[in-house]
Amino acid sequence: MDHFELRDGILHAEDVPLPAIAEAVGTPVYVYSRATLVRHARVFRDGLAGVANPHIAFAVKANPNLAVLKVLAKEGFGADVVSGGELTRALAAGIRPQDVVFSGVGKTHPELVQGIEAGIGQFNLESEEEGYELAAIARRHGVTVPCALRVNPDVDARTHEKISTGKRENKFGVPLDRAAAIYAALAAEPGLEMRGVAVHIGSQLADLEPLETAFGKLGALIEELRTGGQTVTHADLGGGLGVPYRKHETFPSPAEYGAMVARVTAGWDVQLSFEPGRVIAGNAGVLLTRVVRSKRSGNGPPFVIVDAAMNDLARPAMYGAWHDFDAVAPTGERMTAHIVGPICETGDTFAMDREIDAIGAGDLAVFRTAGAYGATMASSYNSRGFVAEVLVDGGKFAVVADRISPHAIMDAERVPEWL
Ligand SMILES: Cc1ncc(COP(=O)(O)O)c(C=O)c1O
Ligand SMILES: N[C@@H](CCCC[NH3+])C(=O)O
User: Fold this and answer.
1) CATH number at residue 406
2) Of 76, 125, 221, 239, which sees the most CB atoms within 10 A?
3) Are 173 and 123 in contact (CB under 8 A)?
């Protein structure tokens, strides 16, 4: 359930008719619902009722917009960040440094320094090498930094191969069979406080079993570490819970997920952290677009050319992902069409042979489930600029990211005088 519904035949975001946003801000534009973000945050937290004192860190990569982060900060969420830029955003949005977890395989030296200087809550180390580098920086700063070791459990998350992170061949974490030795080696380093373990096996997970398998392996590792004399007080279970992209699809609920977590982790005696992204933000946003024109295509269905493109919403082009497409003012008529953007690539295709609301030039429509991995993956390809973002709250709305024009991008470019 989300807050994007028809009222008197017009699609609204909460109490705001989408045509009002299109008129004020133009299209394409991402539209987020504050009420949906808040509801998802609470449903996720409530789902963890069986877990003592869970720490929930929103995966900033899913939607790093400052206003979105602030909504979640107000819900008591921390942040899972994977770059200095995300760290800066999380702090700017009011998330306390101690509630920030820093993940990522390629944290650079300046990013490690930034994390230390900000006093973040935990570094999730993804390699032994990173651990030694962080330890050296920590010693230079005269501090001891809290760390968890991310392990690669070699579990197939059964999701799209490009967003699977927990198979042996993926770049993430350290191999489970070396984890205890690496943990012990890093725990001996002055400057590091090895306090826990972390796992994240992938995104858009449709079933709980791979997660349960991964968590089971993590539990066994905790036991092994403790038997070996190590201290383990924290475990980070990552994110990954999938969301429906098509009407009538069902996914495990946060409550089912939480019940599984409570069962599997009973007796671990650690503080658990979570890094949900998509499940919080995905269905809290749509990409509002306008049909530029329809074009006949031989004997086949017409091409409905919209003003949004793969540079604004990359998921269909990148992963062949499905996003429901609905007219803002549906007439009840249906048609079959190919939905494409204006970019000069065949890959700029949102859907082929899709049955959709009958729609034509000038009409508004939305791509649903665009609140996660939408605007954040945008580019300015074909010199289209960067898409704008709007946050709705009841009957009001605000632009929370300006549209960045091709002019503004050009302003950052220089032609050397010798040319
Ligand atoms: C380390 C880490 N944590 C959390 C997430 C968030 O995942 P999701 O948006 O699937 O919940 C990701 C992305 O998959 C990730 O790489
Ligand atoms: N960008 C991906 C998710 C990546 C998750 C990264 N940890 C998507 O749109 O589905």
Assistant:
1) 2.40.37.10
2) 125
3) no
Q: What is the pLDDT of residues 161-206, one digit of tens each?
A: 888 888 888 899 999 999 999 999 999 999 999 999 999 999 999 9
Instruction: List, chain by chain if needed, residues with CB within 6 Å of any ligand 2 atom.
Output: 61, 163, 203-204, 315, 319, 373
State pTM to two decimals: 0.97
25 and 52 in a single domain? The answer is no
**Exposed, middle or buried: residue 332 (CB in 10 Å: 0-12, 13-18, 19+)?**
exposed
Q: Model confidence over 286-303: pLDDT tens digits?
A: 999 999 999 998 889 999
Say which CATH number the domain at 269 has.
3.20.20.10
- Final residue of a structural domain among 227, 252, 278: 278
User: What token pair was written down for 105?
Assistant: 């395989």
Contact at 8 Å (CB) between 47 and 257?
Answer: yes
How many angstroms is it from 240 CA to the middle of ligand 1?
5
Q: Which residues are annotated as a binding site for pyridoxal 5'-phosphate?
A: 240, 275-278, 373
Query: Judging by beta carbons within 10 Å of its beta carbon (0-12, 13-18, 19+), is residue 241 exposed, middle or buried?
Result: buried
Contacts of 3 (CB under 8 A, 6+ apart): 12, 13, 14, 33, 35, 36, 392
What's at 118, amino acid-wise? Answer: A
Sequence-distant (≥ 6) Cβ neighbours of residue 233 within 8 angstroms: 195, 196, 270, 271
Number of structural domains found in the chain: 2
Q: How far apart (Å, rounded) are the C-alpha atoms in residues 243 and 223?
A: 33
Residue 418 resides in a domain:
no
Q: Are residues 142 and 70 in the same domain?
A: yes
417 in any annotated domain: no
